Amino acid sequence: MSELTQLDQAHAAMQADLNDDAARMRFYERLADRELFLLLSSEPQGEDIEPELFELETEKYVLVFDREDRLAEFVGVPAPYAALPGRIIAGMLSGQGIGLGVNLGVAPSSILIPAEAMDWLAQTLSSAPDEVEAQITEILPPSAPEVLLTALAEKLGSAGGLAQYACLAGVGHADGRRGHLLAFINPAEGAERALAGAANEALTFSGIDVGELDVGFFAEADEIAQKLTAIGLRFDLPAPEAPQTLAPVAPGSDPEKPPILK
């Protein structure tokens, strides 16, 4: 038996207790974050791809697999495919009335996800935190639950090079509100939106309510950054990957240029 993937494990946890909202959210997070292999009906034409459509009763589905060998096992013969992040596939299917078949018949995580669920996933991934200005009057040790800390650690683990590190602390505001602040220290130029989105997804997919989670960006020399680092919980982000030789990429691998769904 082949080694279980993260998607297999998340699916098993979800199936173990269908009333566990947090487990279900973690499954969808894994689905969004993973590179998936989308079965196509023909070879890609430039940036255009045409997924193979399957009809089950009145529903339509496209098929994805979280490993190439699983796609090959399902098809049995050479077949065209596109390797895309799950979040890109969700965006492609949004509003199309098309569901997603995942690892059908070839893995423990075999599942049919209806079109309505894919619409929800795409909407959840596209939501962004609100921008507000707040005056911090107090910095406290964080009191966030372990499930959120784990979610943040996993999400920030894929944000290499976007900031030097992050720090989570409890904060009090001048208007009496209390919550948490996730501070990114020495963020890369232009990375603020991506970092805020990562924090927002970690909170959303953790499946818990911890009140307010603010996101801030500071230079390491800032006085507040030093206080946050002294009191808060630090998350080190991976160093940026070394530059690689440019080569042709699969259609849709650039999130800014998603493939056109025919």
From TrEMBL:
Xref: InterPro entries: SseB_N
Taxon lineage: Bacteria, Pseudomonadati, Pseudomonadota, Alphaproteobacteria, Rhodobacterales
Protein name as catalogued: SseB protein N-terminal domain-containing protein
All residue ranges annotated as the SseB protein N-terminal domain in the record: 8-106
A family per Pfam: SseB
Chain positions covered by the region annotation Disordered: 243-262
Organism: Aliiroseovarius pelagivivens
